[in-house]
Design brief:
Elements (H helix, E strand, L loop, with lengths): L6 H24 L16 H62 L10 H27 L1
Helix pairs in contact: 2-3
Length: 146
């Protein structure tokens, strides 16, 4: 742990810090200018008004964020198909590299296919080579279908 502090203490400190930062941000967003610079004779807004303004600011932020997300989605939609095809082709090439590795190992142990000290290694290499061959070819096949 951090200097022997308990996790509960660290969480409590972070929670208090977050609440204080939220209050400060709410004060700065809720009143024009700096709160400390304002005179003490001014009437401070009621806490309910600050909560309503904070809720409205959150709703506005959510609306703007949603609009930006939709706009980016529409902008990137033509690239989605091409990106998917490229991803499938890269994944297929990556899988075929494993076929090469397992194929070389199986070829080296081909004399032990029936019995011998490398029998289990040959079977594992051949099996894994076939699995990755299937994955690589099916990835290229799916990319061709798009």
């Amino acid at each position: 742990m951090i200097d022997g502090m308990k996790a509960q203490t660290v969480g409590r400190v972070l929670g208090v810090g977050l609440r204080v930062a939220g209050r400060i941000a709410g004060q700065h967003l809720g009143t024009p200018g700096n709160v400390a610079a304002s005179s003490s004779t001014e009437a401070r807004p009621a806490p309910v008004d600050a909560r309503v303004r904070a809720r409205q600011a959150g709703a506005t932020t959510a609306r703007v964020g949603g609009g930006v997300a939709r706009g980016m989605g529409r902008f990137l939609s033509p690239f989605r198909r091409v990106g998917g095809i490229v991803f499938l082709e890269v994944a297929g090439g990556f899988f075929l590299l494993f076929v090469l590795v397992f194929g070389v190992t199986a070829w080296r142990l081909r004399a032990d296919y029936a019995q011998g000290p490398g029998h289990a290694k040959f079977l594992v290499s051949a099996g894994m080579g076939l699995v990755f061959l299937y994955l690589g070819l099916s990835s290229f096949w799916r990319a061709n279908r798009r």
